[in-house]
Specification:
Length: 338
């Protein structure tokens, strides 16, 4: 199957391109490289373009004989979405509608959509099931929820099969060392904690007075390779005329900030200096997934999402010491050079 992967040069998108290729599919990446990385494009061709260009989307779908779409391309910084909501509504909402319209116009009838647990807002109960009320507290989550609602209407009107995957906290790096996390700015806890250990720069801990066992916020961390595998299973599910629905992706186990720090120290053998500051507005005390539906419907189970493995793979990737101006060069065996 030829699959159009929007945002396929990004952190999760590139890992999914690899997972697709391993399963015998051909990923075609559509990316403007504003946040993705050319070095991450190791499986399938790139069409360099912007999702605002509906004509190019349609031409790409026809030229590559696309059978399905996996849609990642979106802005994903919660704080920025509050400060600059029009950027998020323009890209995450309007541009995604361009993708859906291009699919309808060209007869493509299957899409796996990269959604988020931010659609739930502040949890009323834990773990979060897909039936929890949807009440996002920031524009980022609101744009994702708007697309989930659009998918339902497009599905009924245009016979579009869809799966929305609500991620919890994506983390880790490719176990084979070919891909990893490189954001600018970096806001995720695990790479920041690893950098703090490596460079002896204090890690900011936002809030130490939450109603949790150690006072720090709890999150459900899911390995990026497990996320990628879920997209392939969701695509297979749709190809077999499976039901359209939203699914949580998480482990069902939460880890506090202090637990993450302790694991980083254990894996690296280095201390993580801390700088304790106040809570960030809108941060709930805990976010933990109930992902039973994904297991029951298309057989997904996280396989490498124990915290130790997540941190170890992320540390191995950071140990390659890449910088934003020094991309990985590949050896003949396919692995990055140092």
């Amino acid at each position: 199957m030829r699959v159009l992967v929007t945002g396929g040069a990004g952190y999760i998108g590139s890992q999914t391109c690899k997972a697709l290729a391993v399963q015998g599919h051909e990923p075609i990446t559509f990316d403007n490289l504003s946040e993705g990385h050319r070095w991450a494009l190791q499986w399938g061709p790139l069409v360099e373009g912007d999702l605002s260009n509906g004509n190019l989307l349609r031409e790409t779908i026809v030229a590559h004989d696309i059978s399905a779409v996996i849609h990642f391309a979106a802005h994903a910084y919660v704080g920025e979405s509050v400060e600059n909501p029009r950027k998020y509504y323009r890209n995450n909402l309007v541009n995604t509608l361009n993708v859906l319209d291009a699919m309808v116009d060209t007869g493509v009838r299957s899409i796996v959509f990269s959604s988020t647990c931010a659609v739930y807002g502040v949890p009323q109960t834990l773990p979060l099931t897909e039936d929890h009320p949807l009440s996002p507290v920031n524009p980022y989550g609101d744009t994702k929820l708007a697309i989930e609602r659009a998918l339902r209407w497009y599905g009924s009107a245009y016979d579009l099969g869809w799966v929305a995957l609500r991620y919890f906290n994506a983390a880790g790096a490719d176990p084979e060392g070919q891909l990893g996390e490189e954001h600018d700015p970096e806001t995720h806890l695990i790479p920041l904690a690893l950098k703090a250990a490596r460079d002896s720069v204090p890690l900011s801990v936002f809030g130490t007075d939450y109603p949790t066992p150690d006072g720090t916020a709890i999150r459900d961390y899911i390995h990026v390779a497990d996320l990628a595998h879920a997209h392939v299973l969701a695509l297979d599910h749709l190809s077999q005329s499976g039901e359209s629905a939203a699914f949580n992706l998480g482990t069902g186990t939460g880890h506090s900030v202090r637990e993450v720090v302790n694991t980083v120290e254990r894996v690296t053998g280095l201390p993580v200096p801390l700088h304790e500051v106040g809570r960030r507005s809108g941060d709930p005390p805990a976010l933990v997934a109930d992902a039973a539906r994904a297991g029951a419907v298309f057989g997904w189970q996280p396989e490498c999402s124990d915290l130790e493995s997540i941190v170890a793979t992320a540390w191995a990737w950071q140990g390659l010491e890449f910088t934003s101006s020094s991309r990985p060069q590949r050896r003949d065996d396919g692995f990055p050079t140092r």
